[in-house]
Amino acid sequence: MAEVNLKKYLVMKPEVRNIFEDLEVYKQFCVDYGYIYDERHLYNERTPYGEFVRYQNGKNPWDYWRSPRRERTDFRPRDANSNWKVREQR
C-alpha cells in the first residue's frame, strides 16, 4: 500500500512539467538575446519574460548581444548654476 502511494506521489504532474518546459525555453531565449535569466521572472510581464512573450507572438526583441549602445550626447544637468562642463571625447 505504501509503495503505491509513494509511486503516485513521485509522478510529475502535467502542470509542473509545463512549468519546467517553459523555464527551459525562457532560459534559451535569455541566452540567445542577452537578457538576465531569473526563475522568478517566469509569468511576470514586467520582467524580461514579457519581452519573451512578445517574441513568441512574433515581435522582434531587443538584442543585447548585437545591438549598439546609444550615446547620451544631449545630456545637460537640471541645475543651470552648476559647474558641469562637457567632457571631451578621447
Briefly say what this structure is.
The chain has 90 residues and is mainly alpha-helical. 6% of the residues are buried. The protein is 41% helix and 0% strand.
How would you characterize this protein structure?
The chain has helices at about 1-10, 15-35, 50-55. The chain is mostly helical. It has a domain at about 25-60. The model has no long low-confidence stretch (mean pLDDT about 80).
Keywords:
90 residues; mainly alpha; 3 helices; 0% strand
Radius of gyration: 23 Å
Number of helices: 3
Structural class: mainly alpha
Q: Low-confidence parts lasting 5 or more residues at pLDDT below 50?
A: none
* Average pLDDT over all residues: 80
Q: In percent terms, what proportion of residues is strand?
A: under 5%
Q: How helical, in percent, are the residues?
A: 40-55%
Order of helices and strands: HHH
Largest sheet composition: none
- The geometry reads as elongated
Number of strands: 0
Secondary-structure map with pairings?
Elements: H1 2-9, H2 14-33, H3 48-56
